[in-house]
Records
---
Amino acid sequence: MKKTFLLTALSFLSLLALSSAAQARTFAEIQKSGTIKIATEGAFKPFNYLDGKKLTGFEVDLANALAKNMNLKVEWVTKPFDSLLIGLDQNRYDFVIASHGINPERQKAVDFTDPHYCTGGMIVSQPGGPKKVADLTGKVVAVQVGTSYLDNVKKLPGVKEVKTYPKDPDAQQALMAGRAQAWVSDRFLALDAIKANAGKLEQGDMVFQERVAMATKKGNSTVVAALNSSLKKSYADGSYAKLSKQYFAQDIRCK
Ligand code: ARG
């Protein structure tokens, strides 16, 4: 009797939880409103960053182009990197574009579009510092929290300590100030940082590869489909290539 009551109470509670988890906006609902809400971090140059007060970067320009393709206006939201995917669940925006690598753990929580670029995590150090994965043995490595860099560096045997920072530029700063002997970040971002700090930073090996994609709330298939077809269009009509060359002097789409 007592047990039955408990079970009934429990299933009632779980029903409540389900019904309060409102549905994400479908693509048709977004079209009706005329504006798509997109979230990014704004601190991952050259992918998404603030130029003064202006949100810009490859991913910001690309998402703006995709929205234009879909005849939609854009409303941008910026949030700390490690809270971006959680916000999808709370229906705060329609999709996220913030250099998220597709991985099984994230796929449990959100749905990904086709990848919008292919990249990987690269070791960066000061001159004479660790360059190969094996050189990281006994070293302190700086990474941004919540990233695939953290997941992958944690798995390396022998690393003395992985220091995490809320923002990727803080992880870079830790390396430059000597609080860490290596920094692992996106290869294209790293190459830019090395160029901007000529003589102070050096490129090391790639630690892993990843395919980067946009994310929607789990189950929001109409938005995923619309983004995929818009992305395909940008591949076909040359607008993706133009943007990619502008930012990276090469086409970074997955081959
Ligand atoms: N590509 C890495 C990952 O999947 C890092 C992404 C960091 N993005 C950012 N906007 N800070 O976790």
Note: Residues 41, 44, 48, 81, 98-101, 144, 147-148, 168, 186, 212 surround arginine (CB under 6 Å).
---
Amino acid sequence: MALVSLKPIIDAANQYHYGQGAFNVNAVAQAKAVIEVHEMFRSPAILQGADLANGFMGGCTDFVHATLEDKKRGAKRIAEAVRTYGENASIPVVLHLDHGKDYEACKAAIDGGYTSVMIDGSSLPFDQNVELTREVVRYAHQRGVSVEGELGVLAGVEDHVFAADSTYTNPLKAIEFFKKTGVDALAISYGTMHGASKGKDVKLRCQIPSAIRECMNHEGITGGLVSHGSSTVPAYIVEEINALGGELNNTGGISMKELKEAIACGINKINVDTDIRLAVTRNMKELFQAHSSLRTSGEVGEIYRLLEENREKFDPRVFLTPIMDTVMFGRIPNSDVAAITDCIERGVKEVVGTLIVQFGSYGKAPLVQCKTLEEMKEFYRENER
Ligand code: G3H
Ligand code: 13P
Ligand code: ZN
């Protein structure tokens, strides 16, 4: 089936009380693996390309400095990859822009084939956040595309998510934000944070999603509540990376217990990127340890050098630059490159499969009331008059 928007998938998670993971991808092999593992578990699927993922997939290896042109090219490539595997899948698949930086980045994603976008105005004063988000909602809903906004600021690795302080979301402001912007989902701040160093034994303030959900019910608002920065940072993977020469310190994630409680308190969409990065990095290190001849391979030896030079890093984008043709188009020219894509796919499936089961979205694909973007366009036209 054609890619769907976020709204029907969030509506099903809300109605049937399960958590829906949303998983970041930065390469064709990751998109393929995320879709395949969701199909295996008969789960609806949300794939996310962050603003920088679009830049990277646009060919900018220095992705932190990607231009709008890079992002436009990359958005089309991610959409192409997700359509290739998603349109023939037996489950509903959404392609969602994660942390859209501004109106232009959201427009580029929508024009490139994304079926849902996030506009992250969380670092702006409330009124400016509302204004920017409304502008994106107008453009997106006219095309049947859903929108996630953000209110409140997460702490953590925020250099590319536009803010440095942590302030929890005010539930009353969240209701006002839903009403003023018409967003389909709202990312809230309630104790999670991005990256692999979230602290030890993080406790979430689940009263916040509870209060927002309660007020939403009173006001007849049916949107989704989104938990960013929700990686569990599995200790076993970190230990394996460090045993293979990695230098990851002060790591810690959100426990599954806390995430399950958050789901029970009204969180629907749970964003995970870091866990995937960790598993893929571990797999590549393991590969080069087990097959030392690959360290001098003309095709992938450079990946080994980058892993060795960046022992404290775990973002596969840092290591995969020597095979951008594979990253961007999924081309696999020989068995050495095939071994790397296998590392990527297995890493994704290990982490995403675990979370599909833990969040409870397995078997839920048939419950989603899928609508085409045309139907969603009509829905918004009817409901926003
Ligand atoms: O929430 C942030 C995601 O992990 C995306 O990260 O901006 O480095 O692609 P990125
Ligand atoms: P993690 O860094 O915890 O995986 O968070 C990912 C995220 O929030 C993507 O938007
Ligand atoms: Zn995020």
Note: Residues 6-273+360-377 form a domain with the TIM Barrel fold (CATH 3.20.20.70).
